[in-house]
Design brief:
With about 230 residues, this protein is α+β, with helices and mostly antiparallel strands. About 35% of the residues lie in helices and about 20% in strands. The longest helix is centred in the C-terminal third of the chain and has 32 residues.
Length: about 230
């Protein structure tokens, strides 16, 4: 969804716009700042919002693993999770495999076109293992990564595209509408307030459950007292 479409949807909720209308660029820029501030606050409240980022990684011959994060082979924000990917074209998808599946590969340096990746979400850099490894073919790996919104640079203009999980859209639109209403001399309806509160509460609960499931999965495979417990 374009940032401008999200803003327009919020303004329709409070009756500022009719279907098909758009606001002037100055107002859009103001609404963008309000949206960015809102998402930062959500992160502080435990309702971290996520967006999907498309990453490109030129593969290096015979290289088994790549680091991901500030200063890594992929020098962008460390992902929360990798949703999928492909090599060169979308007709060559790669499989996301588990740590156990990767560990069971006998010869991890087998050359060929990569078909599988295993991502170890270590901190501060995640590590991604590719199998088979490339061999003189100049392949590139294209990845869809889920990352938490933390900075303005996540979307800098209203022309940028937001790829949130679908269940984020309504809570964001409704809560942004309530934030923008006073600037237009409007009052949000009680129904809109209830919907916004319900959506934000649901996101906080989803985030809490997902975090707990991750911690439990680590505990199940990490000896008590070990110092290898990592935060995702």
């Amino acid at each position: 969804m374009l940032v401008s479409d999200l803003i327009n949807a919020s303004l329709r909720k409070i009756g500022v716009l009719s279907s098909g209308e758009a606001i002037e660029s100055t107002r859009q820029a103001e609404a963008l700042i309000a949206l960015q501030n809102m998402l930062r606050l959500w992160g502080a409240l435990g309702a971290t919002s996520y967006y999907v980022v498309k990453e490109t990684l030129p593969l290096v011959d015979a290289k088994v693993s790549y680091t991901w994060g500030d200063g890594g082979d992929i020098a962008t924000a460390r992902p929360t999770s990798v949703l999928g990917g492909h090599v060169d074209t979308e007709t060559r998808p790669v499989n996301l495999i588990s740590e156990r599946e990767y560990r069971n590969i006998a010869t991890k340096t087998t050359p060929g076109q990569p078909t599988s990746i295993y991502v170890n979400y270590t901190y501060p850099l995640a590590t991604m293992y590719v199998y088979p490894v490339t061999s003189g073919d100049g392949h590139s790996l294209y990845l869809d990564a889920l990352k938490p919104f933390t900075e303005t640079s996540s979307f800098a203009t209203v022309a940028d595209t937001l790829s949130f999980p679908v269940y984020y859209e309504e809570p964001i639109i409704c809560n942004l509408a309530i934030r923008l209403a006073p600037e237009y001399g409007r009052t949000a309806s009680e129904d809109l307030k209830s919907l916004a509160l319900f959506g934000l509460t649901a996101l906080k609960e989803i985030h809490a459950v997902n975090k707990m499931e991750f911690v439990e999965s680590i505990l199940l495979r990490t000896p008590v007292g070990a110092d290898t417990l990592r935060s995702k």
